[in-house]
Hints:
The chain contains 3 helices and 11 strands.
Amino acid sequence: xxxxxxxxxxxxxxxxxxxxxxxxxxxxxxxxxxxxxxxxxxxxxxxxxxxxxxxxxxxxxxxxxxxxxxxxxxxxxxxxxxxxxxxxxxxxxxxxxxxxxxxxxxxxxxxxxxxxxxxxxxxxxxxxxxxxxxxxxxxxxxxxxxxxxxxxxxxxxxxxxxxxxxxxxxxxxxxxxxxxxxxxxxxxxxxxxxxxxxxxxxxxxxxxxxxxxxxxxxxxxxxxxxxxxxxxxxxxxxxx
Length: 240
């Protein structure tokens, strides 16, 4: 059988030969992957109609979780060691409506960053009492809704120079206003909601005082004095 040189085979014939050499299973798999792969648009988060669009944007991260150890001590008060598993949240959600050569509007909903946590603490009192307290804390939550608008500003030069007669010969009414741009925006606060208007702490067991204390006196007063006067200031040097 004569072997044909690749230079003598036409382009269409070579393509058919390549299709024959590719196993059908691989072709089917490649086609399946092509159909299943998601289509990612350049305008992610936007709905577009003709040259107008509606977009939605958000900041991240919206929620963070973790834990924190907290200490406090001052003269006359207990040495407190508090363990606080917490959640920190904030949000900035914005819609942007753009109507080509006509109007622009943005609506923003903002939740200021705040933290909420439960806690378990040990309080060492000067008298020798050791208190085990639990509760929760939450910071103030402020939600704000704002809007801003822009309108389309246009102008056209009517007279360039007094002696340029060509400017009067033709007038393009379709593009009469040839220089246009959006105006400056003025941000307006629509509403503010103080969901929680001040930081709060709530005890579930104990109340942060020595009066309502569990399990009360566990160690000698002299040992408590040593811990409060020497150990606590070293571990918590910013306290007074």
